Amino acid sequence: MPAPAVTNAPEETQLPAGTINFPSTDLNQVLQIYAELVNRTILRPTSLPAPTITLKTQTPLTKREAIQAFDAVLALNGVAMINVGEKFVKAVPAPTANQEGAPFNNLDAAQLADMGQYVTHVVQLKYAKPSELVQVLPDWSTPPVVASAVFRGRRLMAAHARAFVDALVAKFANKECQTLEQETKQIKARSREKQPLKSPGQVSHA
Fold first, then answer.
1. How far apart, in whole angstroms, are the C-alpha atoms of residue 13 and residue 40?
2. Which of 53, 54, 148, 181 is the most buried (most CB within 10 A)?
3. CA atoms within 13 A on the CB side of 87
4. Distance between CA atoms of 204 and 155, rounded to whole angstroms?
5. pLDDT tens, residue by residue, 58-108
6. In 3-state terms, what secondary structure has residue 114?
7. Model-level pTM?
8. Per-residue DSSP letters for 123-161?
9. Could you give all domains of the chain from N- to C-terminal order, each with its CATH number?
10. In the chain, which ranges are E strands?
11. Helix, strand, coil % (nearest 5) of the chain?
12. 95 contact partners, CB below 8 Å, separation of at least 6
């Protein structure tokens, strides 16, 4: 187990070789030390993998390098660490890290960590147009979101609900891409709005 000096060390203090020593250590213990090292509260889902972590430092490390080593070994075991604000860090399954909304990193590319850390970095194009680019990391793209408006067929739709749905359609939908089924539902919904209300005891006669 790491010595207490790891968590209390100043940023550039050299930690002796072997200070960090995890021989097949439970993930919960590793995350506890990580939280003390970065001075943040860890947020984690119940779906987080539970591997055993093996890590022993062979050379002296600064505190920053020790954090990078933690990030790297956790990433190798399917766990990504994403900072949230100044006080929290999320531990999430690595395959879903791209959906967590990590904050943008404003450091120059030369200042980014060499390994381990999950970062969202924006690069301004200088020698190519956006239309000339092709997707090279499809597994790291956010999946498309499908939204459907479902109405109860035997009830009149409230006017404010109709206005809300229309606003969503105008905002997100392309009319040329709407399916026939969607258009049919919209027509039926409008027709129900025009029908007069009937009292519970009123009976229709043919």
1. 19
2. 53
3. 0
4. 17
5. 999 999 889 989 999 998 999 989 888 889 999 999 888 777 766 666 667
6. coil
7. 0.53
8. ---SSS-GGG---S-GGGSPPP--------TTSPPPHHH
9. 5-121 (3.55.50.30), 144-195 (no CATH)
10. 21-26, 41-43, 52-56, 79-84, 88-93, 104-105, 120-121
11. 35, 15, 45
12. 78, 139
For 45, 70, 194, the CA distances from 91, given in Å and listed in that order, are 8, 12, 52
What the block records as the tokens of 40 is 């943040």
Query: How many residues in total does the chain contain?
Result: 206
Residue type, 129: K
One-letter identity of residue 149 = A
Residue with tokens 């890590």: 55
Cα–Cα distance for residue pair 138/204, rounded to 1 Å = 58
